[in-house]
């Protein structure tokens, strides 16, 4: 692979990853659905959880202070998969354990025999900050000072946003078109068909785990697949499916043993 081709491919990979990042804001938290990260904005403390766990947190946050039945969580957070109540119990336990690592112990509430909920007050206002405010007020009173009379509490709003802007997509599509035309001209990339769907790759035989993932994901309706190796001793592969105008990352579905993409 020529050096400039490697650089161009890396740029496209970075833009491709940026173009599909899905970040939502709930009270004090940023939820990165793409990278499965829950981040507290005040101090940038964050935890990484599994796909089902990030979907559970998001669904509960979207319906804060409402009890979500177990059946609904199983349906919404494991779409297309057959799972049991035990899977939900384990996911909730793991999610709580992860949140405990950043001292968020009171977010998820269990409603016996019903389901789960997120405490809306704790989602938007930290219990720890309440304690710190009390300590500061006590210190002020001890020193004989009064807090400013014009001090007001600014109400906080929950904001749900999806990043990024359309500019990334336009740039990405332009680079992809340029890249594919150039690579075809220099015979750098090759194309084959798997179950009638074109697959763009580097010309080296695709390993069975990649081929199996493409076949098993055929029902998703991808019009084209892009597969390429990631440099490193593990020889991992990155796999994208082109569905409509979106590039969907299927890399974490490739079974690669000890080099499984996580």
TrEMBL record:
GO BP: phosphorelay signal transduction system; regulation of DNA-templated transcription
GO molecular function: DNA binding
Gene3D superfamilies: Winged helix-like DNA-binding domain superfamily/Winged helix DNA-binding domain
Source species, domain of life: Bacteria
Membrane spanning stretches: 169-188
DNA-binding region(s), chain positions: 21-120
Keyword entries, A-Z: DNA-binding, Membrane, Transmembrane, Transmembrane helix
Matching CDD domains: trans_reg_C
Protein name: OmpR/PhoB-type domain-containing protein
Organism of derivation: Photobacterium damselae subsp. damselae CIP 102761
